[in-house]
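Checklist before submission:
- one chain only
- standard amino acids only
- sequence pasted in full

Submission:
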Amino acid sequence: MPAFSRTQQGVILLLGAVLLVVLGWRVNFGRAFAAPPAAPVKWFFVEVEGPAAHPGVMAFDHSPNLPEVLRRAGRPQPASVPESRLTSGTRVIVRPDGGHLLGLMQGARLLMLGLALNLNSASKEDLEALPGIGPALAARILEYRKNHGPFKKVEDLEQVSGIGPKKMEKLRPLVIVDSQERPTGED
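Returned file contents:
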């Protein structure tokens, strides 16, 4: 094996280092850096019904106000429309005279959109949209709510005859307890 001088060894090491840097640059630095994953968007769903150019369920990436919803539905904006924000799951019924009613989407539609059903405002039909809840059990839930007042927490649902731990686990992600009423009103 030939003997190299210190200078020759230095040049060989320098060339090796340059080769490694070039190879590393081509492998790693030639690619664009991946952006960090974006935060998930929280969607707000509002349903528009009645005489409008574009009725149906609309998705917003923010909590919309009524004028914004009416514009997107293709309705002229009435003069006295409140600017307050609508919550996800709001239903706007446009009347032929240009007025509107505010209410809640039906339970089946809420569940289809991935929104939870409020146990304190759900109707019998809304409750029947939940998996494993038939007409008899829905009636018992309403009877419990009538006799004991509004649900204070989701777990109170277990006090209703016919709802055991297994059924409760299936229902837990689909229901909420909200004592505050959703916006309802008329213009």
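Reviewer check: The two ends are 97 Å apart (CA to CA).
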